[in-house]
Please model this.
Amino acid sequence: MQGVTVIDHPLIQHKLTLLRDKTRSTKVFRELFNEIGTLLCYEVTRDLPLEMRDIETPLASMQSPVLAGKKLVLAPVGRAGNGFLDGMLNLLPSARVAHVGVYRDPRTLVAVEYFFKAPDDMAERLTLVLHPMLATGNSAVAAVDRLKETGAKAIRVVCLLATPQAIENVRGHHPDVRIWTAAIDQEISETGYIRPGLGDVGDRMYGTR
Model:
């Protein structure tokens, strides 16, 4: 699909299979989610720009590459998005964090905002929207809408699972926003969950099922 990168790294695919298993404990589920967040972070940041800097090693002077420009913004969506946050912050400890409090109304499947907070200089930073389950795409569209209102221009969506319908929804509203996902599942249940999927991520992560 145009604008979508499916990350098929063996470690990610293996850990995703472990997550899908309904017998996985809350503790292990959280740990796996954190690990996958780190692995996804490697892939979605693969093309970050670099600049050369003069440094001194113990033996010689040299020029060596460092990240160029402003630090990134990580924008987890709802409680599920927080599952990726620590794993990504392990790699990007200086990243800013925008909190996007959005949940999906279980009856209408419409995205409802309950909290939002973002850095002041969003226009100067690359924003990674952490949205693990892209089912209908409504919450992701609402999150990107809100982030663009703050001036954010460079936005990428990082998810664990997506559906074709959600991808079409997000890309239809925001064709400039690329999506990185570990897998594309083909169906959405009557209640708006990805099938086969892995259930309600927030409930499984925080033991509220």
Observations:
- The mean pLDDT is 94.
- The first helix runs from residue 10 to 20.
- Helices lie at 10-20, 26-44, 78-91, 138-149, 164-173, 201-206.
- Residues 127 and 155 are 5 Å apart (CA to CA).
